[in-house]
Write a sequence for this structure.
């Protein structure tokens, strides 16, 4: 069939477009700076792991990855723990001010982080949380919690409320019902929410960089040090970039089976 | 679904309320506080009313970056939404190939934004980047650090690369939710490809498309890190968008009063446009 061939060709071209810049970054990360600057080669001629060695042997380099992973994990946990009950409430009950509250929550997802830079810096400094992982995790809740409530609300609305009533008749208390019955039922929704929370926290740099200086500095901020007096260390910069892609790849791998249905955020 | 009225549900929402109030209301109040004062130091501030707002609204630099921002967000939506739908339609519908496509497509979404900037900074350079080098070899005078047109093209291309997958994945999951019977009925009616798209696929994609438009509008309107790393806002200030203008003002020049007034206007614009989308979503839900 020509139609499916044309489709296959189209999607192949698009995926090549997605992969080309990444291939180039990977290619550069295995080259010496001398080779990078002297000639353009499609494959590293003098293959080297020195760029990666620089990162893995220097604690001030690799601690950036650890810091980022720590605050992202804290953020995902906080986001899920507070968003689950709230999403349930929004999906099942009418209560005073529910619509206003819902829109107010969403409006925080719309707040440009640049607006909150200075106040955040002052707020977290004044309560002694500056340069801690928890500060970045809390700051990222600003946009992750509203999004999580929104996504989960969609998934929870897809579960018939008869389940809730049946559990109630069977004598389950609310917390027991919620943890033992309800959460397993919407686990793909939770997976997708965690994916989005991870994604938006992992990729954000502006707030993470502003709220940290040494102890909780994210990898994105550490990468700027490749710009030195003698120019940019392209090899190490590329290697550091490649290493930031890996956690994302792992996460996609874990949720790959939920992506097709989950990306509709429970709203189709 | 008909909901039960129960004000005790507030207890379930309370943690979210407290958390978001802490990380949003307190900072927002701080911003409001700054926007009406001229601050020279601790205990040395004067109430200036709406002076900052008036000044900000007349500021040419801000007006320019606001126009640039709208042009950018408009271009982003016009390119990415149709392209995303197209990619979703071309994707394999099932099997190993489909999973592979999904994973490969999602990669740009999970790359930290500064690294996205770095990737394109390298890729587009004439001396060490495949893309810039390739264009120069083809005889094009391409240089994103010197030419405004090239800088815009590169920033847009980068954003298309970065975010079109989100639109495509949303649409893809929307398409998978269409029952096979719809297509069979269309086949019996001998509907053309275009008719299938126009009268079956597109209407069923409506709700995911609203989400896609909403997310793409919000995020493109707040874009900061990627163009900052790629072009630094240049050449000149041709790719300086609102967030960068604001950050320079607040942190670089420490012009707090003006930055705070500007912040509030910025936030209000995003809110206003998003509110329009939100009413569109709820309206669509009611129609079902």
């Amino acid at each position: 069939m020509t139609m499916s061939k044309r489709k296959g060709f189209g999607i192949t071209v698009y995926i090549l477009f997605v992969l080309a810049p990444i291939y180039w970054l990977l290619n550069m990360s295995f080259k010496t700076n001398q080779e990078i600057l002297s000639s353009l080669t499609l494959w590293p001629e003098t293959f080297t792991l020195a760029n990666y060695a620089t990162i893995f042997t220097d604690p001030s380099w690799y601690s950036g990855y650890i810091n980022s992973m720590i605050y992202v994990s804290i953020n995902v946990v906080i986001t899920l723990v507070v968003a689950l009950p709230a999403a349930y409430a929004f999906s099942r009950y009418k209560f005073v001010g529910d619509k206003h509250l819902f829109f107010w929550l969403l409006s925080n997802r719309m707040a440009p982080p640049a607006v909150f830079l200075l106040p955040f810096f002052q707020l977290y400094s004044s309560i002694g949380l500056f340069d801690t992982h928890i500060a970045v995790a809390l700051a990222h809740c600003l946009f992750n919690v509203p999004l999580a409530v929104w996504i989960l609300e969609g998934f929870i609305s897809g579960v018939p409320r008869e389940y809730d009533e049946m559990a109630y008749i069977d004598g389950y208390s609310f917390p027991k019902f919620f943890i033992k019955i309800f959460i397993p039922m919407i686990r793909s929704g939770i997976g997708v929410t965690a994916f989005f929370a991870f994604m938006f926290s992992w990729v954000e740099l502006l707030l993470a960089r502003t709220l940290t200086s040494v102890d909780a500095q994210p990898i994105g901020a550490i990468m700027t040090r490749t710009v030195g007096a003698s120019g940019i260390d392209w090899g190490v910069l590329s290697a550091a970039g490649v290493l930031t892609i890996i956690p994302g790849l792992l996460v996609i791998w874990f949720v790959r089976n939920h992506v097709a249905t989950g990306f509709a955020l429970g709203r189709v | 679904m008909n909901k039960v009225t129960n004000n005790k549900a507030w207890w379930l929402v309370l943690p979210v309320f407290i958390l978001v109030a802490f990380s949003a209301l307190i900072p927002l109040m701080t911003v409001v506080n700054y926007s009406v004062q001229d601050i020279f130091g601790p205990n040395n501030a004067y109430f200036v009313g709406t002076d900052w707002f008036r000044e900000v609204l007349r500021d040419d630099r801000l007006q320019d970056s606001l126009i640039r921002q709208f042009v950018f967000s408009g271009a982003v939506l016009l390119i990415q939404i149709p392209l995303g739908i197209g990619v979703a339609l071309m994707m394999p519908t099932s099997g190993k190939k489909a999973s592979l496509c999904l994973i490969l497509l999602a990669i740009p979404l999970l790359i930290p934004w500064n690294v996205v900037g770095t990737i394109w900074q390298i890729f587009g350079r004439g001396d060490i980047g495949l893309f810039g080098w390739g264009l120069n070899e083809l005889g094009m005078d391409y240089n994103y650090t010197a030419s405004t047109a090239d800088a815009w093209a590169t920033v847009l291309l980068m954003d298309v690369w970065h975010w079109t997958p989100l639109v495509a994945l949303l649409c893809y999951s929307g398409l998978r939710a269409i029952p096979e019977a719809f297509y069979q009925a269309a086949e019996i009616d001998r509907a053309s490809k275009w008719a299938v798209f126009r009268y079956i696929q597109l209407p069923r994609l409506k709700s995911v498309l609203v989400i896609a438009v909403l997310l793409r509008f919000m995020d493109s309107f707040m874009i900061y890190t990627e163009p900052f790393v790629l072009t630094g806002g240049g050449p000149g200030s041709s790719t300086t968008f609102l967030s960068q203008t604001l950050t320079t003002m607040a942190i670089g020049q420490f012009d707090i009063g003006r930055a705070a007034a500007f912040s509030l206007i910025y936030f209000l614009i995003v809110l206003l446009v998003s509110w329009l989308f939100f009413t569109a979503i709820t309206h669509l839900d009611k129609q079902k």
Summary: Chain A has two domains: 1-48, 58-262. The two ends of chain A are 30 Å apart (CA to CA).
